[in-house]
Structure formats: C-alpha cells, structure tokens
Amino acid sequence: MENEVQDILASKLNDFKDVVQSFSELLTIENEALETSNLEVVSRLYEQKSKTVTVYRNMVAYFIQNQEKLSEISLEEKEYLRNISQKLDKLIHQNDMLLKTKMQANKIVMDSIVSIAKVTNNANATSYGSKGKYSPLDNNSNALTINRTL
Questions:
Q1: Cα dist. 3→6, 8, 9, 10, 33 in Å?
Q2: How far is CA 46 from CA 11, 52, 122, in A?
C-alpha cells in the first residue's frame, strides 16, 4: 500500500514537472509574440493555453489537498519544484502585464477612433431637429457602433 502511494506521488510529480515545463514554454512563446505584437501567434496559442491552465490548476489543487504527501519527497526535489514554480510564476506575471498593456493600448486606439468617428459623424450628418425641421446642428444623438473584440 505504501509503495502504491509513493508511486502515485512520483507519477503526479512527474506530470506536474511536465505541465510546468510545457506551460513555461507556451508562455515564453506568447510573451515574445505579445512583445512583437504578433497577435496571430497569440490567437493560435489560446486554445492550448486554456487547456494547459486547466491541467495546471488541477495539478496544483491535487497538491494542495495532499500536502502531507509532499513532506515525503527529498529536499533536492522540493528545491527543484520550488525553482520551476518560481520561474513559471515570473512568466505568468509577465504575461499578465503584457496582456493588460496590449488590451489597454487597444482600448485607447478604439476610443480615439470612436471619438474621431463621432466628430466626423456629427459634422457630416443631417437630422431633423426637435421641431421637425432639417437641422444639421441638432445631430448629437446619431447612433454609432463599433466592434470591441480583439
């Protein structure tokens, strides 16, 4: 029974190492793509990233629920797990910052485009005033829409 528990733990630890390694590689690629504004690569990685995050969270949840089993692993193994986890954490924080920066920049660009479109729309639009007469000055309520997806 004890050997079976240790085999399961060893298997889970190996799986965790593989997941952290592949997640780190994926984030490195995505971070480079974000830095160079290669949104095609970011888009292509989305599904794989989503699946990897789910697997990673499940692995972390398993270890949180079974913390007492982790006390049985060697100090070298603990140090190795700590190091790869810290490297992954840095990549996650960098990814978060880059994504927020790109989204904020896109929002600013879209807001600028919308503002210009509104000014142009108001300057060129015709409408009827409140008394039912043609009034190019009373056109501030004209509809304008944009697609806000990235």
A1: 5, 9, 10, 10, 45
A2: 27, 10, 39
- Give mean pLDDT in consecutive 10-residue pieces for the chain, a chain of 150 residues: 77 94 96 92 94 94 87 90 95 94 85 78 60 59 57
Q: Which amino acid is at 125?
A: A
What are the angstrom distances between the C-alpha of 52 and each of 21, 58, 103? 11, 10, 22
Residue matched to tokens 């989503």? 50
In angstroms, the CA 39 to CA 102 distance is: 10
Per residue in 88-105, is it b (16+ CB within 10 Å) or e — as a string? beebbebbeebeeebeee
